[in-house]
Design brief:
about 375 residues; 4-stranded parallel sheet; 7-stranded mixed sheet; 2 domains; alpha/beta; Rossmann fold
């Protein structure tokens, strides 16, 4: 019988974190189960930083449904199976602190840990599950790339922000006869770029799954000029790359081993410069960046997050641990964390764009790709 559960939010922040937390807490309270927030992601398991969450008067989980971010914090550098430790002499080493975390979980009496996060977060959740921890995952990421689910919470809000940016860039582009490039997030998946391009009426969408030919993009813009349209809107995913080329990387972070330390960014400026040279039209790039993550969640994400939170708590009550709450065929469901990580089975292994990782990417038979092509959006190929 469940008496006490912990909730951790891990990875980049998204709108919807708090709505999931609220849903878990409210569902748990209906079954007389105590909920604690594990502060700053997996870091909280090492630091034993736990905070009671409640919807009673004065409780921490009151009024959080419309709030962006996470009231319990998050972390992008807390792989406890390869944890970065700075020694007193300044030297750095990486240690497996998972057993210490498990000891803290047992001592505090957690019957289940809810892990709100993307592929890296759920990889660690799976690893803890193999070591006997009761874990249930909830798929979070604006990138929409978690395997085995049709949509992640936070994604719809990010697309909506990108769409609004495109609406605004349209007026500037039309006024000054320019090519307006918008670089959006998504890492190795093109969901945000593709869906916002359709919603925002873009002329070009460059996504990681389709290496692009810049000359074909320029031809699309030239054809628009011939039809009297002296401006164009181009959406570029941060992970887009030219045919035969490489990713554009801003730098490499030092967030520890076992996590993806590649910092993508800059492809929008590259594309804008090339298109200006090829077409003779002025081109300007806007990198939307963290604007996509912050702020209040859309109605869609509030509902989706609430559905995910209640489903996760239901799975816990049913004793279905080692699973991820998912949307399958439009309905709430669950899959094993083993299925989510796919071939990435080594404990503490790196997550992200590797041969072993199991990211959900855009496929060429997806309805979004077909729709984009049918309405004349150039995909760079």
């Amino acid at each position: 019988m469940l008496k006490k559960v912990g909730i951790l939010a891990n990875g980049g922040d998204v709108s919807g974190f708090n709505a999931v937390i609220r849903a878990i807490v409210k569902t748990a309270e209906n079954h007389n189960i105590e909920c604690y927030g594990i502060i700053d992601g997996y870091n909280g398991l090492i630091k034993k930083d736990f905070e009671l969450l409640s919807t009673a008067e004065g409780g921490e989980a009151i009024g959080i449904l419309p709030l962006g971010g996470s009231i319990i914090g998050s972390s992008t550098n807390s792989n406890l199976f390869n944890y970065k430790v700075v020694n007193q002499d300044g030297s750095v080493e990486y240690k497996d602190l998972s057993d210490e975390a498990i000891k803290n979980i047992k001592e505090f009496g957690f019957d289940c840990i809810f892990t709100l996060g993307g592929d890296g977060t759920q990889k660690s959740a799976r690893d803890f599950s193999t070591k006997g921890v009761n874990v249930i995952g909830v798929p979070k990421t604006i990138d929409n790339d978690v395997a085995c689910t049709e949509i992640t919470f936070g994604y719809n809000t990010a697309v909506s922000v990108a769409m609004e940016a495109l609406d605004r860039l349209h007026t500037t582009g039309a006024t000054h006869h320019r090519i307006m490039v918008l670089e959006v997030m998504g890492r190795y998946a093109g969901w945000i770029a593709l869906e916002s391009a359709i919603a925002g009426g873009a002329d070009v969408a460059l996504i990681p799954e389709i290496p692009y030919d810049i000359n074909k993009v320029a031809s699309k813009i030239e054809n628009r000029k011939k039809r009297g349209k002296n401006f164009s809107i181009v959406v570029v995913a941060e992970g887009a790359k030219p045919i035969g080329g490489e990713l554009t990387i801003m730098g490499t972070r030092d967030n520890g081993k076992g996590v993806d330390n590649t910092k993508l960014g800059g492809i929008g400026q590259v594309v804008a410069k090339q298109l200006q040279e090829l077409t003779g039209l002025e081109a300007r790039n806007t990198t939307l960046g963290y604007m996509q993550r912050g702020g209040t969640p859309t109605a869609f994400d509030r509902v989706l997050s609430t559905k995910y939170g209640t489903k996760a708590m239901e799975l816990a009550l049913e004793g279905k641990f080692g699973t991820l709450a998912v949307i399958k065929n439009g309905k709430l469901d669950s899959v094993s964390l083993e299925e989510v990580v796919g071939n990435n089975t080594k404990i503490g292994a790196v997550s992200g764009n590797t041969e072993e990782s199991n990211l959900r990417k855009v496929t060429m038979d997806d309805d979004l790709v077909k729709t984009a092509r049918n309405i004349g959006i150039n995909l760079g190929d």
